[in-house]
């Protein structure tokens, strides 16, 4: 079972890429610094070297639910020269190299994190699930992602290299024969965790930042009591152990003082009916592992390890399961900050967590969910109708 991109409600479907769609909504203010990127488009090879001078403006509109009310604007500011002194207290990742595992589209948390890191000046490498690699590279080559690659300074995010990756397998010896013979893996080489790390080492020598944006659960739609042992262990393997494996193999080539982050979900500690198949268990394991890995990687290599617990965000996989729209509406109605979550807000939090500004933060679960995690009850219940609870009166439209 292949690990795939984490997203929205942090859901997964069997051997399918997990995407999330940023809403037509912007988040709270943040400021970044990035180097200008305006080189001419080069030919995309199998290693996916991407650059372009085209300029586009992006609206995040793939959500089936639109909120019409006051908007909060996410701003990022960039500098045109690496040599120019930086004003204020910026997030500066210039000279840093990041590997983001789990980018297979331009709509997920992994993509949003990559953009925020790039806006802060980091060099971006990505790992893409092998069966999705061809579509992803083709879309990049044909400019389908150009609009969503736009950075705050008007340049386009440059992805230095795309690596095929299936983080379920540590080494080639772990890959079953039926997977090796699968036509979706044909033509791709060196895609196990060990092989990818060896390729990155050969190509670049080292990295500073590791991002885990992977999740997969073949039985996510089943209640835990109906989940098979095979399905449960597959969810754990793809969604939590994959992080352990990636950090284990990347650690020797991570520069001291670097950082790693993963993505989790509140189902790790609260009951979310419908989030089954062992996925809640996998997220709980991921959060526990974050603390242990923070200690071990911190003592061994001075690497910080944190995880972001992101709120519900629409994704293709989550829509297929059927209730992501309701979870978005529930979050809007009940979170302390009454607005929809933007993938950019998760990306901005990630940029902070891997930057020197968070140098004393490790082993933490950081909630980026408009505060929904703080609530003990749903205030949209009729039982609270007698209370004078402030709420936004916004028109909500359903879009297909």
Any overview of this molecule?
The chain has 400 residues and is an alpha/beta fold. Helix content is 28%, strand content 15%. It is built from 9 helices and 11 strands. The strands form 3 sheets. It has a 7-stranded parallel beta sheet with strand order 5-4-3-6-8-9-10, with helices on both faces. The chain has a two-stranded antiparallel ribbon with strand order 1-7. Strand 8 (254-264), helix 6 and strand 9 form a beta-alpha-beta unit. Helix 1 (109-119) packs across helix 9 and helix 5 packs parallel to helix 6 (279-301). Mean pLDDT is 81; it is low at 10-80 and 395-400.
> What is the residue-averaged pLDDT?
81
Number of helices: 9
Principal-axis shape equals globular
Let me know the number of strands: 11
Q: Proportion of β residues?
A: 5-15%
In order across it, which strands form the biggest sheet?
5-4-3-6-8-9-10
Order of SSEs, N→C?
EEEHEHEHHEEHEHEHHHEE
Helix content: 25-40%
Q: State the end-to-end CA separation.
A: 31 Å
Largest sheet: 7 strands, parallel
* Cα gyration radius (Å): 20 Å
Helix and strand composition category: alpha/beta
- Give start-end ranges of low-pLDDT stretches: 10-80, 395-400
Keywords:
400 residues, alpha/beta, seven-stranded parallel β-sheet, two-stranded antiparallel ribbon, 9 helices, 11 strands, globular, disordered C terminus
Summarize the structure.
By secondary structure, the protein is α/β, with parallel strands linked by helices. The chain contains nine helices and eleven strands.
Layout of helices and strands, plus pairs?
Elements: E1 4-5, E2 65-68, E3 97-101, H1 109-119, E4 123-129, H2 130-141, E5 159-165, H3 177-180, H4 193-204, E6 207-212, E7 214-215, H5 229-250, E8 254-264, H6 279-301, E9 304-310, H7 316-321, H8 324-334, H9 343-353, E10 365-368, E11 395-398
Helix pairs in contact: 1-9, 5-6
């Amino acid at each position: 079972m292949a690990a795939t991109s984490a997203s929205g409600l942090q859901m997964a479907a069997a051997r399918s890429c997990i995407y999330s769609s940023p809403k037509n909504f912007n988040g709270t203010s943040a400021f970044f610094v990035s180097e200008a990127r305006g080189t001419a488009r080069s030919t995309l090879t199998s290693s996916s070297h991407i650059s372009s001078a085209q300029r586009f403006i992006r609206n995040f509109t793939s959500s089936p639910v639109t909120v019409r009310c006051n908007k909060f604007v996410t701003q990022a500011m960039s500098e045109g020269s690496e040599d120019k002194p930086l004003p204020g207290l910026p997030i500066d990742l210039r000279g840093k190299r990041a590997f983001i595992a789990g980018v297979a589209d331009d709509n997920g948390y992994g993509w949003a994190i990559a953009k925020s890191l790039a806006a802060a000046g980091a060099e971006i490498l990505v790992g893409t699930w092998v069966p999705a690699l061809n579509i992803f590279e083709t879309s990049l080559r044909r400019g389908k992602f150009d609009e969503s690659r736009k950075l705050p300074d008007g340049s386009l995010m440059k992805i230095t290299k795309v690596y095929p990756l299936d983080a379920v397998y540590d080494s080639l010896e772990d890959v079953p024969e039926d997977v090796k013979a699968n036509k979706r893996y044909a033509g791709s080489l060196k895609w196990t965790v060990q092989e990818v790390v060896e390729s990155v080492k050969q190509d670049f020598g080292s990295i500073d930042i590791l991002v885990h944006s992977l999740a997969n659960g073949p039985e996510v739609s089943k209640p835990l009591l109906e989940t098979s042992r095979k399905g449960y262990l597959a969810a754990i393997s793809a969604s939590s152990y994959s992080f352990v494996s990636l950090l284990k193999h990347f650690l020797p080539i991570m520069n001291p003082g670097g950082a790693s982050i993963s993505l989790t979900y509140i189902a790790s500690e609260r009951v979310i009916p419908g989030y089954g198949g062992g996925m809640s268990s996998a997220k709980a394991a991921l959060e526990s592992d974050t603390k242990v890995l923070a200690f071990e990687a911190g003592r061994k290599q001075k690497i910080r390890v944190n995880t972001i617990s992101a709120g519900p965000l629409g994704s293709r996989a989550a829509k297929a399961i059927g209730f992501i729209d309701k979870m978005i509406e529930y979050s809007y109605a009940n979170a302390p900050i009454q607005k929809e979550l933007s993938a950019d807000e998760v990306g901005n939090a990630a940029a902070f967590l891997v930057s020197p500004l968070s140098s004393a933060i490790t082993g933490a679960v950081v909630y980026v969910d408009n505060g929904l995690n703080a609530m003990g009850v749903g205030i949209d219940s009729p039982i609270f109708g007698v209370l004078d609870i402030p709420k936004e009166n916004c028109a909500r439209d359903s879009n297909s």
